[in-house]
Amino acid sequence: MSDSLTGRETVLYMVGAEAGQTMTVSLTVNNTAGYFNVYAPGAGPGDAALAVGSLIGPMMPDLNRFEGILPTSGTYTISVYLYRAAARRGEVADYTLDVAVTGATGEVVQGDFADGLAGGPDFYQVATSAGGPLNLRAGPSQGAAVVIALANGTNLRNLGCRMAEGRRWCRVATLADPGDEGWAAGDFLIEGSGTPAPAPTPASDAAVGGTDEQRVHFDPGASGAELTGTLPPGASHRYVLGAKDGQFLTVRVAGQGPGLSYQIFNPDRSFLLDQMSREQDYRGQLWQSGDHVVEVINRGNDTASYTVTFGIE
Questions:
Q1: 155 near 196, Cβ under 8 Å?
Q2: Comma-separated ranges of CATH 2.60.120.380 domains in the chain
Q3: How confident is the model over 11-38, as pLDDT tens digits?
Q4: Cα–Cα distance for residue pair 212/209, rounded to 1 Å
Q5: How far apart are CA 304 and CA 283, in angstroms?
Q6: Phi/psi at 82 (nearest 5 deg)?
Q7: Which of 88, 114, 288, 291 sits 20 to 30 Å CA-CA off 313?
Q8: How confident is the model at residue 127 (pLDDT cuts 50, 70, 90)?
Q9: What is the rounded CA–CA span in Å between residue 92 and residue 280?
Q10: Is the pLDDT of residue 202 over 50?
Q11: 2-102 maps to which CATH number?
């Protein structure tokens, strides 16, 4: 990943990995004051770092090079920054960050212990925070293809769980005959029963309130745009932005109502980002050229007004 930062800016990269895997991180930067820190799951800038790029020590065989066996499963944070004096002077640093995670992932395990990797109950139930659907995926990854969208409250048969990408994923099957089988994020599963619940909806279906689409145009010379909208319950609005492989896309959604979320599709309609809460901004480098789609969704029970900000650089 290549980017630049100025002054007191800090760029954060989130990497999901499992205990026992090996992570390597190296930073190439054109400013000698540029460094990175690595933080264990649950920690970030302001907390104690797992490793500091400006110091040689455990897991840091050289300046700006990290290599070590990870102690816990979860999402690790890599913070790229300028050292204090250079940051105060407003210096600029162009850099390339290389990250690798190697080593086998854990096996699918079975058992009778709820909320862990060792099995769980015989049945799960979908329980999303805003009452919306949950994607059932072909593999234990946010980037895996969507098989179907499971309605909130759907009961599922538990076929075993494992850690992947710093997250607990469970292989589940719907109770219909014939049913569907795939992987669901364990964050949105609670103990359920063998009673069939609402039928799943095809992943390609629009939200129940309808979906509109709009192409986003930037003003001449501008690299961003800000738009406003209003969504009734269950509705969504799709924004289409043309962008190229290698460019950076920034998305920020601000609004009222707990049910607002958004997702981003690549030009081939695969997921770039799946079901992100409005409280979290997105910034990432694109790997396809063409029309990217940002879909803002209201999964709440009330009409919601919002502002969405886009940037492409």
A1: yes
A2: 2-102, 211-312
A3: 999 888 887 889 999 999 999 999 999 9
A4: 10
A5: 24
A6: -100, 140
A7: 88
A8: confident
A9: 26
A10: no
A11: 2.60.120.380
CATH for 106-205?
2.30.30.40
Q: Given this model, what pLDDT does residue 111 score?
A: 42
Tens-digit pLDDT profile for residues 73-105? 778 899 999 998 999 999 999 999 999 999 876
Quote the tokens at residue 93: 């640093």
Instruction: Give the mean pLDDT of the chain.
Output: 82
Q: Which of 134, 143, 137 shows the shortest CA–CA distance to 182? A: 137
Residue showing tokens 């961003």: 224
Let me know if 305 is exposed, middle or buried by CB neighbors in 10 A (0-12, 13-18, 19+). middle
d(CA 191, CA 216): 43
Query: Two tokens at 42?
Result: 């649950």
Residues of the chain with CATH 2.30.30.40: 106-205
Q: Do strands 290-298 and 260-265 pair parallel, antiparallel, or not at all (unpaired)? A: antiparallel
pLDDT of residue 166: 65
Cβ proximity of 162 and 117 under 8 Å? yes
Query: CATH class for domain 211-312?
Result: mainly beta
